[in-house]
Amino acid sequence: MKLSLAGSRSALRRIFSDKLAARSFLLAASLPLLLLLLMAAALLFRTLPIFQFVSPWEFLTGDLWRPSQGEFGLSTFISGTLWVTLLALILAVPPCIFASIFLVEYARRGTLRGILPAIDLLAGIPSVVYGVWGLLVVVPLVPRLGQFLRGVFGDLPFLTSSNPTGFSILAGGIVLAVMISPIIVSITVEVLRTVPQGVREAALAVGATRWQAIKHAVLPNALPGIIAAAVMGLSRAFGETLAVMMVVGNTPAIPRSVFDPGYPLTALIANNYGEMMSIPRYDAALMGAALLLLVVVIIFNVLSAMVLARLGQEVSS
Amino acid sequence: MDSHISIKDLNVYYGANQALKSVDLEIPRNQITAIIGPSGCGKSTLLKTLNRFHDLVDNTRVEGEVKFDDIDIYAPDVDVTEVRTKIGLIAQRPYLLPMSIFDNVAFGLRIHDMTNRREVKGHVEKYLKLAGLWDEVKDRLTQPATSLSIGQQQRLCLARGLAVEPEVLLGDEPTSALDPISAKNIEGSLKELKSQYTIVIVTHVLRQARRLADYVVFMYLGELVEAGPASKVLSSPKDPRTKAYLSGEM
Amino acid sequence: MSMQKRWWRRAHLEESLFGVLMRLSAVVLVLALAGILGSVLVRGLPAMSWDMITKAPEGGFYLGGGGGLLNAILGSLYLAGGGTVLAFLVSLPIALGLNVYAPSSRWATFTRLTLDVLWGVPSLVYGAFGFLIMISMGMRASLGAGILVVSLLQIPIMVRGMDEVMRLIPSGQKEAAFGLGATKLEMARAVVLRQSLPGIFTAVLLAFGRGIGDAASVLFTAGFTDRIPTSLAGPAASLPLAVFFQLSSPFPEVRARGYAAALILTVLILIVSGLSRALARRLSRNVVN
Question: Distance from B26 to chain A by nearest Cα, in Å?
């Protein structure tokens, strides 16, 4: 039997359907980029009118937000977002890394096997439920914590506030920290488990203690993955809306202390979209805030991809 | 010599690295050809040019001519799936398809338009027998293929490869992952099959080449050093590099 | 000798210090997470009643009157269900495009980066984008618009989940199908789809969970109503928004219903998660490890 050169009908049919599939799947795979570009373009298009009244610089750094008087400065809200997100990261990342190390390196296999499904489950719990927990548990605790700190240490920078309620940056940070911790732990555990056993043994064989082996051998190997985990947590915390809105106070003033209330960008948009069509240029300003969120997320991801690519090379070499 | 595949001035590049350098080779029909040489010499690369597996990898370039009978399998109007149907491959490890034992063999039949159930069944039985696996699996054909031992899995892969009725069988160290008894089974099957098939295997076990091969090809650093009937190449090699390899100095 | 001793002491001090830190972290984490489920249970259970899951709000509901949350339950199921179906129809081809037909690995890397960015884009931004599209087409906040936006939000989650399992398929297994003369499409069906079937299901259910729990995207696009949604063109309520709106009420009875809504939402998520585990196990019968 000879090779039929694109011969039989069935071969033609098979090749045709394969080519058709190739076209459509590749077309589908170009949709994510298209969606991202479309999103950026649509938001930018709606934002541009605002720049006829305030310069982009004023828009980002101005601290007056009086839409009915045509004053649009986002700095209060940007600082609200920064405070809450940074606080969440500080509160979440170190304990999550420690807890993951404990689960992988120290705990019994059974403990890990029992806890992992629970962690994955918690990663799927809707953010609004974390918000409910924040309202019920965190917000009432925060003023007491404030009083306690004041009683022990007196006035401290970033820790002293006249805010009598618990609706504060700290409450937002705690809620977000707990919300992102299942994600961070789940990825970090995965990463630590893929570090080859030989890496640990090499360190232990030269007389290192267990923690030294982890510090000097395991963690450097796992670093790219841990960074990726932190970036994912960061993305979630940064863009969270409802859970933060419920506990953060939503007062448009730049916070001086973690016990002050704050007003993140996401809360600004969600609270005011209802009347954005009734005040001139309000819609443009709010869409500008959304565009800012989008741009920051893009920058995060590109930066972390670059860092990870660099680290990946170092680890593999 | 009646050659089944003939290779002329074959060069393969992985990016900027040249993995095969101007290889010329005639592969005899209905014989077992063994490609031998130290690791990294281009044995597997050469084998993969024969069923156009390099198409699957980025940045790989194949230049030259590979004629299967009279058809250049790299010609633009040749359908690559047809090439791979005619030239089958037994991989280093048994890579199962995620299906039942029966479906693993039937898969190839079905994609090549065998729709009649009874016909499919008959073929599956025939090739499982040919691979010497039928008696062991005939009562559990619907079980997942993963339930087989690794030696059985490799014979299942052999049956699967035979079922699409190729004319050439390529083996990429087909026994290297197996226990000695399974390896012996596969070797036995290959010997039986050579009356109907042209067989090309890559092996790094010299004794296996001695046991199986009618024709031997020695590769070194991407070059084809020496090729000829097994009796000649293995007992009285001409090239000093072949001599060194055979005597274990490489 | 003394230096060695000091070194040894420091190493062990460090060891026990970090040992304590690690255990403490693990305990705090577990306590916080258990506290979440606990507080939702404790506050939600007393407010639960048969009416909550079988009735839509009746007159004066937001002042403490009768009725239940069926509008939000159904609305959420429709939004997440519809979104999941749409997202699946797009995500599977994307994942296959990435893993079977990618013209080069650089192209695949770039597309994956794009998907990572989309994964990180806040759902609020999806909502704002959906809102813009909606008003530019003259549409009102509606179930249909909500479903569309939820599906956009789900696509990166789903593709990511599918891609993760598809990437793990060894090339030798794909080559096994190619070696028999299979086209890429035939290989995809025989190997990639079957091998990643459990992972695909997990990804779909994960995306469903995210869809049902998301509020910020539907806030703009699906609106909220006390009626049970009957058409794609009308607005639809959702559980997360029901939680949010009712918790901002001054009436304790209404806030209690917010807790009930949170409990229902959590239970739905637990069901989805349990389902995904059970299904994944069943579907992995033929999968090659």
Answer: 18
What band does A6 get if pLDDT is binned at 50, 70 and 90? very low
Domain residues of chain C, as ranges? 2-47, 53-283
Q: What is the pLDDT of residues A190-199, one digit of tens each?
A: 999 999 888 8
| Domain covering C53-283, topology | MetI-like fold (1.10.3720)
Residue A52 to residue A73: CA distance in whole angstroms: 14
- Contact of A52 with chain B, judged by CB distance below 8 Å, is answered with no
- A15 vs B: CB within 8 A: yes
Complete DSSP assignment for A284-301: HHHHHHHHHHHHHHHHHH
Cβ-nearest to B98 among C105, C178, C194: C194
C172 vs B88, B93, B144: nearest CB:
B93
Task: Please tell me the total count of domains within chain A.
Answer: 1
Q: The domain containing residue A210 runs over which residues?
A: 81-316
Q: Which of 78-97 (A) contact C at CB < 8 A? A: 94-96
In a domain, B135, yes or no: no
Q: How far is A180 from chain C (nearest CA, A)?
A: 11
- A3 contact B CB<8A: yes
**Predicted-complex ipTM score:** 0.91
Helix (H) / strand (E) containing B240: helix B240-246
Alpha helices, DSSP H, located in C48-104: 50-54, 70-99
Q: Check if the beta carbon of residue C199 is closer than 8 Å to that of residue C161.
A: yes
Q: What CATH number is associated with residue B32?
A: 3.40.50.300
Instruction: Residue B183: give the domain boundaries.
Output: 3-96+168-246
**pLDDT digits over B20-43, tens only?**
999 999 999 999 999 999 988 899
- Structural domain tally of chain B? 1
Q: Is residue A278 less than 8 Å (CB to CB) from chain C? A: no
CA distances from B102 to B116, B138, C172, C178, C183 (A): 15, 9, 20, 18, 21
CATH of the domain at A286: 1.10.3720.10
Q: How many CB pairs under 8 A join A and C?
A: 255
